[in-house]
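>> Question from a student workshop board

For tomorrow's exercise we were told to take the sequence and the ligand below, predict the bound structure, and bring the output to class. My setup keeps failing. Could a helper post the expected result so I can at least see what it should look like? The ligand is siroheme.
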Amino acid sequence: MSEQKELSEVEHIKTASQGLRGKIGVAIETGADGFEEDDKQLIKFHGMYQQKDRDRRKDENGDFIENPTSFMIRGRIPGGRLTAEQYAVWDDLATQFGGGALRLTTRQSIQMHTILLKDLKPIMQAVYKVNLSTMGACGDVVRNVTQALNPWGTKELTQLDPVAQLISDHFKYKSTAYAELWLGETQLNKEVEDPIYGKTYLPRKFKIAVTLAGDNSVDIYTNDMGFAATLDANGKIDGYFVFAGGGLGMTHNKPETYPRAADLLGWIPEKDLISVAEGIVTSHRDFGDRTNRKHARLKYVLAEKGAEWFRSEVERRSGAKFDTDRKLPKWETPKYLGWTERADGTLALGFHTLSGRIKDFADKPLKTALRKIIDEFNLNVQVTADQDLVLMGIRKEDRPKLEAKLKEFNIDPASPKPLYDRALACPALPTCGLALTESERTFPQLLDSIQAVIDKLGLNDRAPIVRMTGCPNGCARPYSAEIGIVGQQAGGKYALFFGGNPEGTKVGDYVAKKVAFADIPVQLEKAFSVWKQDGKANESFGEFVERYSLDKFRELLGSM
Ligand code: SRM
Ligand code: SF4
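>> Workshop helper replied:
Here is what the output should look like for this input. Compare the format with yours to find the bug.
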């Protein structure tokens, strides 16, 4: 077989795309309601997915009707940082085109669903006007760069703003297709070379997180590449611990696919940031598997060639030398929900939103309330990797007014109980084409029933991190949670994963398979009872699982 034949289909589509153009322009011009098959792959590089509402609906005669094609759009918002004006634009677009809902994502971005093709262009233009875009938010390129949260406004954490921005800008693709197709720019060089991505881009998506060493609010080990900054005696960034090869996607019953925590490559001085980042991204470009998309992520290169080999390859490409003797500080995940005082004397409010869905619920006009507050008090916003929002720059004297406003709207920014603080669920049905089961829509009910178990056993002070997804792709990072609930089979069957810890330094593994939705709390009660009985004082569920062993849990739950 020739090498050309072995390449995956998407590789051919990228090569023939004329810089990610394909026939996207034709569909826009002719007023089509959807894109051709090949272009469905290319539009991802422009920050969108073609979807269908998967809820089956009947017409007045009781016959099933074909649900219309619609689009999901995702922003490129480095570090999840937005001004009040930028937030307002997303909010307005959601009202006008996105069914009245915004969705905060697990990579500090914003998505909108149920968009029609004809509305894509005005959306892209409105986002671009406030200096943001959707370019490369999806596709085989560097995606939204995540960044440690900074409700405190410290100068140490603020230094990460230009770092995340620099990395994001450096790895933006060079094709002018985006400007031409969506922004209507015509004086463009169509033949522009892309020194990093070439004509075939990366073999697969690539995710990057930046933080301060010790602060794991970004779940750094789940990223393809991570930089954890260290500080000199004056609090200035002097270098980075560098991580590579994390990733979560897997497929049930295919053990050759698996979630993986990133390897620590070592420490580098500050000046080597971009050359090392390029060394890692181009290693993925050159060694990632372009014949099998299920095996194309950087994590498989690390797993198969080894961290030692990878370190030397990156050193060769970048000219930098990793210091492998430096000791990494202990990781923590700082609490950000509630009120915090900022270094500039203003306040921040960590605002809990379950699963990041911002809309006007029947008894709770969350979208309207957030918009009013952000506008009225002119607040900057940071979307968190846990699908929450941090509102920043609130003057101390405005706090009572802001609280009164929230009360007026019947909105409580606090999470109901510790279990809900860091709980995540992916969108799944009805928009996600890959969902096997429900996730976001049934998550509140599931959390309430797990909370009942926690209450019964008196474990509120150690409530574990629970995350749920509608398939094994891992979008709500279930494998780095203490409890991962992962859609396995249509009809509502889930696999349970234990083994992650609160600091987010490990990934877990199966402890039960094909558990019916209603049985999840029953299975968890068995596990929590052993933890309560045999766990040490204050031992987290994650630590206990490590000591007790996954095999013993598999035996206890009896559904493997
Ligand atoms: Fe994801 C595909 C939603 C974070 C791993 N992800 C999808 C798609 C686009 C489905 C599709 O391909 O048709 C989902 C759209 C659903 C919808 O209707 O909105 C989707 N992923 C999401 C979001 C919105 C989940 C959320 O609850 O917030 C997150 C958007 C992040 C962003 O702003 O960029 C999201 N996805 C993640 C993460 C977590 C992370 O990056 O921190 C992961 C695991 C980490 C990783 O990449 O390994 C993740 N998504 C996947 C995968 C599996 C990739 C793999 O290596 O196998 C897919 C499927 C694929 O790419 O083929 C996927
Ligand atoms: Fe869809 Fe699966 Fe991602 Fe959930 S985890 S959004 S079901 S791809």
